[in-house]
């Protein structure tokens, strides 16, 4: 008996399979912190592959003066980096064109979240890696968990540090293999004290600030949780390729041009949608008072930046016009079959909430058939 249309894999699923066969494969060594051994492990694998006759070359590697890591370079071919002059300083960046010309079977690329020097083809190294993958070159790379965009707020809250080098979660989510390079907190601190991670004076400062036992323990827990989730996500993606998509409820997050904590709200929505295996929308509700002709340039830049962040996090940024925020959110939810609405906690004065109710109160009151998730950001 022939399959029904509902059970038959879609043309898009077949196309995804073809594209993944044409692309290079991505393997990520993921760690909780600097010094756990990600680069060391990547180079060790490169050496093993070379001994098996595989064409391996190093696109870029950072040993940071660590003798144990430098020893693993051995006789691996290093494609010379580009020299870029910037503000009187010579910077070394991965030479994307040279790698594409050389076309090794496997390219080793350290520090995936790195920001390229001005004048490079792409702003970020992960975009260079995307070009290599599209060209059919397999890539083995390294990254620390705190560089994932959606974890930015959690990491800042835990460590007190603002992580500047960040990359979209989707980059890691698309990896074909993820290896957790784990090291106990005690062993990492011993390596720090022995000068195997940073020079002694820098190691001492690091252990007083970022590399505290509490920070390292929490980051290690986050890494273990994230790796488990990423592996599960890859399994769900493979299952979706084999059959009809079983995506759960669609998620939306509502934004205004004055949302004070929009980036944090977007990151939470992205992580929720990812856990639900659902598509999600970042919807700017544009009221007549927020018409582009009535908003200043600074506000418009902030709004544009927030919508760009939503795209980086894997969401679908959209603008939806309406005269009233709650009713416009509900109209969007009905039109796009949304089941979960994520909103930031209201900080309106109690007098405004008393007369007519806040946006959240009105939304909850009228949201029959919707789950409204209120997050504190």
UniProtKB/TrEMBL annotation:
It is an enzyme of class 2 (transferase). It comes from the Bacteria. Keywords: Kinase, Transferase, Two-component regulatory system. Coiled coil: none annotated. The lineage of its organism: Bacteria, Pseudomonadati, Planctomycetota, Planctomycetia, Isosphaerales. The keyword NAD does not apply. This is Sensor protein KdpD. The keyword Transferase applies. InterPro entries: Histidine_kinase_KdpD, P-loop_NTPase, Rossmann-like_a/b/a_fold, Sig_transdc_His_kinase_KdpD_N, UspA. Its EC number is 2.7.13.3. Residues 249-375 form the UspA domain. Residues 23-229 form the Signal transduction histidine kinase osmosensitive K+ channel sensor N-terminal domain. GO terms for molecular function: phosphorelay sensor kinase activity. One of its GO terms (cellular component) is cytoplasm. It holds the Pfam family KdpD.
């Amino acid at each position: 008996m022939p399959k029904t249309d509902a059970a038959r894999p879609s043309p898009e699923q077949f196309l995804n399979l073809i594209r993944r066969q044409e692309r290079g494969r991505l393997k990520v060594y993921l760690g909780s912190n600097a010094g756990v051994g990600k680069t060391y492990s990547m180079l060790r694998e490169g050496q093993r592959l070379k001994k098996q006759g595989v064409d391996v070359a190093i696109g870029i590697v950072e040993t940071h003066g660590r003798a144990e890591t430098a020893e693993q370079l051995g006789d691996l071919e290093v494609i010379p980096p580009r020299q870029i002059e910037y503000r009187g300083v010579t910077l070394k960046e991965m030479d994307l064109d040279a790698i594409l010309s050389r076309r090794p079977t496997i390219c080793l690329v350290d520090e995936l979240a790195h920001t390229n020097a001005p004048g490079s083809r792409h702003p970020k190294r992960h975009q260079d890696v995307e070009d290599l993958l599209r060209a059919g070159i397999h890539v083995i790379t390294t990254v620390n968990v705190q560089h994932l965009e959606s974890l930015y707020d959690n990491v800042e809250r835990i460590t007190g540090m603002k992580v500047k080098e960040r990359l979209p979660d989707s980059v890691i989510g698309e990896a074909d293999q993820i290896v957790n390079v784990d090291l106990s907190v005690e062993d990492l601190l011993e390596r720090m004290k022995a000068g195997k991670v940073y020079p002694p004076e820098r190691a001492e400062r690091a252990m007083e600030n970022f590399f505290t036992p509490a920070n390292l323990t929490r980051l290690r827990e986050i890494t273990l949780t994230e790796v488990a989730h990423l592996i599960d996500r890859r399994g769900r993606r493979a299952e979706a390729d084999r059959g009809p998509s079983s995506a759960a409820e669609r998620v939306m997050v509502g934004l205004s041009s004055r949302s004070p904590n929009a980036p944090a709200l977007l990151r939470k929505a992205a992580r929720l949608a990812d856990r639900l295996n659902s598509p999600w929308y970042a919807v700017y509700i544009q009221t007549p008072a927020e018409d582009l002709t009535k908003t200043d340039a600074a506000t418009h830049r902030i709004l544009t930046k927030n919508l760009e962040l939503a795209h980086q996090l894997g969401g679908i940024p959209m603008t939806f016009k309406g005269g009233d925020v709650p009713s416009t959110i509900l109209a969007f939810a009905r039109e796009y079959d949304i089941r979960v609405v994520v909103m930031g906690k209201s900080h309106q004065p109690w007098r405004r909430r008393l007369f007519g109710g806040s946006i959240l109160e009105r939304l909850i009151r009228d949201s029959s058939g919707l789950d409204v998730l209120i997050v504190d950001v």
